[in-house]
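Researcher: Before we compare anything, I want clean individual predictions. No alignment, no superposition, just each chain on its own. First chain goes here; please echo the sequence and then give the structure tokens.
Model: Echoing the first chain and its structure:
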Amino acid sequence: MAYFHGPWFVTPVEIPSQVGRTFFKAEAFLSSISDSNPLLSVVGKCSVLDMTDYCSLRPTMHVENDVYCCESLFDEGKRLIMPLNGSLKKYQLSAPVQKDEVYMFKRTITPEKETLPPPTPRTVSSPMLENEDSMDAPPSVGSVESASPAPMKKKFDRKKLVTAYILFSADVRKITMDENPGVKFGEISRIVAERWRQMTDADKQVYAERAKKVNEEKEKEEIRKEAERIRMEEERKRNQPPPVPSPGPVNAPPSPLARARHDSGLK
């Protein structure tokens, strides 16, 4: 199974209510959380632009409803919206990659902000779900980068770990989308999370065992790669050519005067 790693983006309706704050109609926030997800979880694509690009251009490969603007960061630990430090990260594509077509506006636009309606109360009570980190469920406190993690030893990066919930979501997300055509991505995520809550502990344990096996295999592969890297490094050092000795001082032949003095015993 292949995985990809990257940050989350969240919309205003997916974060705690911000009383008195207004939002752009198509606003998204860069989350402070990054994690790994299986490629099977990809269900579509959208475009998130910083404000300068959002006001001046559009990628033609995306419909307008799938284009978002971003000027703020959402700190998952503090549950606060903070100014974005700089702009969004932009990737340099290799030569074989075909760049998306971009339409440039003749004049820049000025998006307007609006106030969201009060959120609908939702009852969430599942300790087991809160302990699962995934692409759908809110990350646990221990996975928030801004929080103080408990000291523990790990053999490889925790961000690469696969959880039981990630495997469950990969199994049921496509089925959930087929059962709920036209439903937005965030709502699909909430439906998947609710199905996870309704599962028995025994069923969750099945996914936990699968996740354990996947992580063990990944750890073995990481150890193998590290051992191979060390072996190659040691072999490179052994095969280095011996250092060339530096030439000593070159003694110039004595001058005729010096030879005469030497022969006559003069100093």
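Researcher: Okay. Second chain, same rules.
Model: Second chain and its structure:
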Amino acid sequence: MQGDVNEEDFGLHSDNLRRLLEETSVVFHVAATIRFDEPLKYAIEMNVISVQRLVGLCRRMTRLKALVHVSTAYANCDRNHIEEMVYQPSLEPQKLIDIIGLLPDKAVEAMTPHLLKTFPNTYCFTKGLAEYCLLKEAGDLPLAIVRPSIVGAAWKEPIPGWIDNSQGPSLLFIANGKGLLRSMTGHRERVMDVIPVDFTANLLIAVGWRTARIYDGGKGSLTVYNGTSGGVNPLKWGELESNMVHSFAKNPLDLAFRRPKMIFTEHPLMRNYWSTVSHLLPAYIFDMALRLVGKKT
């Protein structure tokens, strides 16, 4: 079925909607915008209002046994310690939705830094709002929230290393393997919390089963699950630096621009130096060479 989470009833055809309401027993809500720089108004539409629409649909489902919402481990990244619970945001989600709906895009854009406060981007901010909306508006449903960290390539299923997109960590690895990305700002001792996609998929299935089992028919059974790897099998950025270079030396990518290399630095001066030496100068030289042979840059 094709639909649009930004429309009422997800824009489903009447026959598809009827079938969905009559036959669905387990709902996995995965749809979201994951762009960090998404305008706040659109991020709220995609990540918060769409959740409210989904709750409305679920209430009309006659056979609903479990609603599993996929959030993110960074939905409460403004806190030092994150437990498996839903936290109250500093702003009431519905009031924020009502206010932003009345304002022009430029006004919302100007307000965004003040609304985000300590949140690094609109993605984390709106995912936290969505969790609280679910607590308030769907607390009586068979509901669970799963918070995966950075979802990476598969560990085993369907095959080791499987991935179907170039987003998140996959884009980082591809850019490094092609020789396009050779330096990044970061702390070598910090943990890069990546969870394989097949771990996350298996967790969602298990959570759906458990939610249906423990639901007591109207009293609510909201449970939160943090799906992360950093506390069990931490991978530091410094380790990733050497692992990527070693891996691509053994298994190079096709049509690499140059030999892969990766340097992490948190010092502003060194960051600017490596950005200039590793990225800007090679790009200018390559563009100049293309112009000399009559090709577009």
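Researcher: What stands out in the second chain?
Model: Residues 290 and 297 are 6 Å apart (CA to CA). Additionally, Residues 268-292 form the longest helix (25 residues).
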